[in-house]
From TrEMBL:
This is Peptidase M20 domain-containing protein 2. One of its GO terms (molecular function) is dipeptidase activity. It holds the Pfam family M20_dimer. It comes from Stylophora pistillata (Smooth cauliflower coral). Transmembrane segments: none annotated. SUPFAM superfamilies: Bacterial exopeptidase dimerisation domain, Zn-dependent exopeptidases. Residues 34-128 form the Peptidase M20 dimerisation domain.
Amino acid sequence: MVSSGCFKDVDFSIMVHPAPFDLAFYVSQALEKAEVVYKGKAAHAAAFPWEGRNALDAAVMAYNSISMLRQHMKPTWRVHGIISEGGVKPNIIPERAKLEFWVRTIKNKECAILKSKVNACFEAAAKATDCTVDIAWDPIPHAGVLTNSKLAYLYQKYAGQMGVVFPSREEQESIVDGSTDFGNVSMVVPGLHAEFCIDSSVPFHSHVFRVAAGTQYAHDQTIIAAKSLCFTAIEVLNDPALLKEMKEEFLQAVKDA
C-alpha cells in the first residue's frame, strides 16, 4: 500500500492491537527476511562421497557462524532462523539445502549493519564448502514503528478518561515487541500503534490469547480502544496547529530513524 501511494494524501494513521498490557508508546523492531539456498553436488555417501559437495554442510556452517556472531551483537539485536531443507536421504550427499532467517533491530539504520554481517556468514559458508549460494532478501523490509508522541499522549488521555491506566512512557518504551508492516506506514505519515489489554496473563498469538479475545472483557476493552482512537482523530482534525506539530515531529523522527 505504501509503495502504491495509498498514503499520499493521508495526514496521519492510527491503529490498535490487543495485548497483555496497555500502551501508547509502542516500540517494534525493524525486520529483514532472507531465504538462502545452497547448491552442491549429489553423490553416494558411502561409495563415492568425495564426488559430492555437501549443501547441508554449507547450511550448518552458516547457521553456526551466525551463532558465533551473537557474542558481537548488541543486546537489542535479534537473529533467528531455521534449516527448512537439508537433503532427501541419509545415503545421498545433499545437493540442496535451504535456510530461512530473520534479522531484527530496534533502530532501522542498525538493521542494515546486522544484515551485512549475517549475509557475510551466508557467503563464507558457500566458499568453505565449495557450494553455490542464492541469497534472496525480502525486497520490502519492515521498518520499526515511529510512534508520534502527540498522538500517543492524546490516545492515553482519552483512554484514561474511560478508566485505562497506563505505565509511564519510559516503562512503555522498555517493552520491545516483534515487527509489523505498520512500521513502513509510520515512515511516511505520523503514526500511532497503540495496544490495549485483553488479559494480562496470556502471551501474544497463543491459543489462550485467542480464547481471551472472545471474552466480554476483551470486547469491552476493544470498545474503549476504538473510542479512544476516534476521539484522538477528532481532536487532531479540529486542531491545525496540533497537526502541524505532529508533522514536524514526524519529519525529525524519520531523519533519526
